[in-house]
Write a structure and sequence with these properties.
The chain has about 625 residues and is α+β, with helices and mostly antiparallel strands. The chain is built from 14 helices and 17 strands.
Length: about 625
């Protein structure tokens, strides 16, 4: 690869975008460009891999860090290198070089070249890459590119709180305010003929996705991811201050508790309410979900939802999710709120005992009014819960269970039966064993030194597997879609979870190559992909605009708001399960092209708590590494 000879930037040209001349430059940029409406309808791409009119030079539309990898992709059939130029304000050429032909990227269905302009260290806004007459969208280079975006990603959870008025100044704008939704969750009865006859107060929590359901198993992995973000910042990273009290725009700010923990507690309190009370059949187990009797139409603000809501039967998977995250919360809140911590640990212990007594109570597939979230295998949930309980309580029975588990100190790199068959990734809501090993690797004194070294080595080995995949992809993404070459529902979350593993590997080894792989994955999310689609609302030259959501439904009814900035789409999905995607001419699409930015395309363009949680994790990680100039060795 030819990085190109770096040319000095001539400063002081009137009306030009400023670019710092120094290689490392003072300060950074002012952050990402404002949410841009492209002025064009974002129509779904057809099956042709290289449709006419598509942009040829693809970049991270938000920007790049001065001291980390800066890579772009060019659609090109040519077998010979092509000349590229990096242009600053007023088309000033500041660097140039030749592309590296990368051949055919199979998931994208097209031939590409790679531009690596990492040697350029200048900072500023309005940079453009040019290859012949083709130009990229403008982007920034600076240390502050994700400084606002990371908090917007966390604001997603406040916006989707149930049982609370979403009000100014916390909503970020009047269009996003609304009355509290589902106050009727104060007394939700069991589903008829489900084996119980009581009602529970299950107010609070986060709406799971575009609907108004609340699901324990998806809440579990979302809570773990955000609490792991906190534990990593405290024990391994250098960004705890970025999560502190007063850093987020939420009602609890100013209470002397880290704002991230305040936000996550809103969901934990709901999860605790889902536990079957003492004196009832299956006491200590946890109800799998609560949602409407039938599917509701778009648009529908949560406070106007007319449907009856029901508690669905307990499941072993939901029970172990509560056991895991309540144990995790117990150790984190021990020095913050001892009473709450003790309550969490007691609930976790009770849930574990109930799951051991009822190890195969499985949620049913299918259903109406909400997602099934069924799971045929719960061995991974048992391992995860045992790991969190061991770290928190150090009781011998959990340590013994861990040692006997086939998942002990391992990190999977291939999804099993169920969601994401065969795709190289480490965790989803349905496959959570890796969460236990990651916690054991992050939290100090969770294991003796030798075992902790083994756990961290497993994380690094998984990261190496993803790094190897990145090197085979023309788009330089650390994931592919398995032997069937079919992108799964929520494909972006599979990638984001891989980036968590890569980020932790960098922490454990001080390895710059892993950090740069995290950068590469975020480049894909923010526009360096086959559709030139920034999959996050409010950011980039081609931002996500119309996610499937019942309140953020402006496309359906102008009286409703657009989505606020910082929500990530599930992304391409070869299944094309929704009618809109099926009718949009996407049949035969390459896996990375099976996407429509349309509110009706719930199989490709929904949002969800377990997708925004890893987005926030990765953004905080990158802002620490690139924003502070600490890229590793």
């Amino acid at each position: 690869m030819t990085a190109g000879r770096l040319l000095p930037c001539l400063l002081g040209v009137a009306a030009c975008v400023p670019v710092a001349q120094s290689g490392r430059g003072p300060g950074g940029t002012a952050g990402p460009p404002a949410s841009g409406k492209t002025g064009q309808g974002n129509q779904p791409a057809g099956p042709q891999a290289e449709a006419q009119g598509e942009a040829k030079v693809l970049v991270n539309q938000v920007g790049y860090f001065p001291d980390l990898a800066k890579v772009a992709v060019v659609r090109a059939e040519a077998q010979q290198p092509l000349e590229w130029k990096l242009l600053a304000g007023c088309d000033r050429e500041v660097a140039f070089g030749k592309t590296q032909p990368a051949g055919r990227d199979v998931p994208a269905g097209e031939h590409v070249h790679v531009i690596d302009f990492s040697p350029w260290k200048g900072t500023g806004e309005g940079f453009v890459l040019a290859v012949g007459a083709d130009r990229s969208r403008p982007f920034a280079i600076g240390t502050g590119i994700y400084r606002k975006l990371k908090y917007d990603a966390l604001a997603y959870f406040y916006h989707n709180r149930s049982g609370l008025e979403i009000a100014m100044p916390f909503a970020g704008g009047d269009p996003w305010t609304r009355p509290a939704g589902h106050l009727s969750d104060k007394s939700v009865p069991c589903l008829p003929d489900s084996g119980c006859d009581y009602s529970l107060d299950v107010t609070g929590g986060w709406y799971d996705a575009g609907d108004h359901g609340k699901y324990v198993v998806n809440g579990g992995i979302s809570v773990w991811t955000l609490l792991n973000l906190y534990e990593r910042a405290v024990h391994v990273g250098k960004s705890a201050a970025a999560l502190a009290d007063g850093t987020m725009n939420i009602p609890e700010a100013g209470n002397k508790v880290a704002d991230l923990l305040d936000e996550v507690r809103w969901e934990i309190e709901f999860l605790l309410k889902m536990q079957v009370p003492d004196g009832q059949p299956l006491a200590g187990m946890v109800h799998h979900k609560v949602h409407d009797e039938k599917w509701t139409a778009l648009p529908l603000p949560p406070h106007e939802d007319p449907m009856p809501r029901f508690l669905h039967p307990p499941s072993t998977a939901a029970t172990l999710n509560l056991a895991a995250v309540a144990a995790q919360a117990g150790r984190i809140w021990k020095s913050i709120d001892g009473k709450f911590a003790a309550r969490c640990v007691a609930a976790a212990e009770k849930a574990w005992a109930a799951a051991v007594a009822n190890p195969a109570v499985l949620a049913k597939p299918g259903g109406v009014g909400g997602g099934p979230y069924e799971d045929k295998h719960v061995e991974d949930e048992f391992y995860w819960a045992a790991a969190e309980l061991h770290i928190t309580s150090r009781r011998p029975k959990y340590r013994e269970f861990l040692a006997s588990s086939p998942d002990y100190l391992k990190v999977r790199t291939r999804m099993g039966e169920g969601e994401g068959d065969g795709i190289p990734s480490s965790m989803t809501w349905q496959d959570v064993a890796a969460l236990g090993t990651l916690s054991l690797a992050v939290v100090p004194r969770a294991l003796p030194a030798a075992q902790r070294k083994t756990a961290r080595a497993a994380v690094v080995a998984a990261a190496d597997a993803y790094l190897a995949i990145l090197r085979t992809r023309g788009y330089r993404v650390p994931i592919h879609w398995g032997q069937k070459n079919q992108s799964p529902w929520g494909s972006n979350s599979f990638l984001l979870n891989n980036l968590i593993v890569l980020g932790l590997a960098a922490d454990f080894t001080d390895g710059r190559k892993y950090t740069n792989a995290v950068v590469a994955g975020m480049d894909y999310i923010l526009g360096r992909n086959a559709l030139e689609q920034c999959y996050v609302t409010g950011y980039g030259g081609k931002p996500l605009e119309n996610p499937h959501h019942r309140f953020w439904a402006h496309q359906k009814d102008p009286k409703f708001p657009h989505a606020p900035p910082g929500a990530v789409s599930g992304g391409p999905n070869s299944g094309l399960q929704d009618p809109y995607a099926k009718a949009a001419g996407l049949q035969g699409c390459a896996p990375d092209r099976c996407f429509a930015d349309h509110i009706e395309s719930w199989s490709t363009n929904e949002v969800a708590i377990n997708w925004n949680a890893p987005l926030a994790w990765v953004l905080f990680y990158l802002d620490e590494k690139g924003g502070a100039g600490r890229a590793g060795k």
